[in-house]
Specification:
mainly beta; 1 helix; 130 residues
Length: 130
């Protein structure tokens, strides 16, 4: 427990120091994995598989670039198995998620335009809005 609190403090200091808000472009596997309370990752672009894996209190926002011409309601913005094993935090995705969205999510809140097959499997004590 002590190591978790220590890591959370370090993560918050890094977020303030390196301004992790307003990232742009494509982010690969496990973007925002285990993001701790106090960390906000605001991505203008798209994310790959496992975005928010094990989310631990942070906030993740993924939205398309307004100049891209993407229609969010019809386009994939994050890949498969997003929020796998998340325990707390918030996610806002302006677009559609791939398959197995929020599987084993046990406490994080999520808003997404739509999802592929098998969304919210084994989810407990969490909330997802489509």
């Amino acid at each position: 427990m002590l190591s978790g609190k220590s890591q959370a403090l370090r993560t918050r200091r890094l977020a303030r120091r390196y301004h992790l808000d307003f990232l742009q472009g494509h982010r690969g596997q496990a973007f925002g994995a285990w993001a701790a309370h106090g960390v906000t990752l605001d991505l203008i672009g798209e994310g790959n598989d496992y975005v928010g894996k094990g989310l631990s209190g942070g906030k993740i926002i993924v939205r398309p670039d307004p100049k891209s011409g993407i229609v969010p309601e019809e386009s994939i913005i994050v890949g498969n198995t997003v929020l796998y094993g998340a325990i707390t935090g918030e996610c806002y995705f302006r677009g559609i998620a791939g398959e197995r969205f929020a599987v084993r999510n046990s406490g994080a809140y999520a808003v997404v335009e739509g999802t592929g097959d098998h969304g919210c499997e084994y989810m407990t004590a969490a909330l997802s809005s489509f």
